[in-house]
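Thread: Newbie trying to understand structure tokens

Hi all, I'm a second-year student working on a class project, and my supervisor (Dr. K.) asked me to get a predicted structure for one chain before our next meeting. I've only ever worked with sequences, so writing a 3D structure as a token string is new to me. If someone could post the tokens and maybe explain what I'm looking at, I'd be very grateful. Here's the chain:
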Amino acid sequence: MQKISTKTIVMTGMMTAVLAVLSQIQIPMPSGVPVTMQTFGVALCACVLGWKMGTASVAVYLLLGSFGVPVFAGLSGGLGTITGATGGFLIGFLPMALLTGLFTPSKNKAGTILCSTAGLAICHLLGALQFMLLMKMGFVESLMLVSVPYLLKDVISVVAAFVVGAAVRKALNAANILTYA
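---
Reply by user tm_fold:
Sure, no problem. This is what the structure looks like when written as tokens:
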């Protein structure tokens, strides 16, 4: 069993904090699902930390929010948010982080694109499914309301996270801070 270094724990916590701050940047929408920077934050965690610690960082974020710490969009928190209309997206952040970070860092562009796309698709699918069930509407109607309008922004967010994440990872590696991704 490999020990986790203090640097790794601190970097994971720092990226959790970055995700919590980015979650507060939001534009309310009539559907009740705001436009946020959460997708960028989740992808950034994965791009900087890799799949293991990036997913751990997102898991810590979700746990904090579940226990009522106001880290989710609009300074919300608690199990009600996870089980509410937007909770499927929050749950979808875990597979998104895992898949986005799977090839990070890597020269395998095809694998990176494929896994990141799959992660984003799973996140949107879980979000639309939970919204559909809670709002008692059809699946296509739910997709058209809470997924499709956000897809372009989310794809741009993931691409931007790869660009920013590569620069952050390079700087952290040069400073001998990041030794695990």
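A couple of things are worth pointing out once you decode it. The longest strand covers residues 26-27. The CA atoms of residues 9 and 64 lie 16 Å apart. Feel free to ask follow-ups in this thread.
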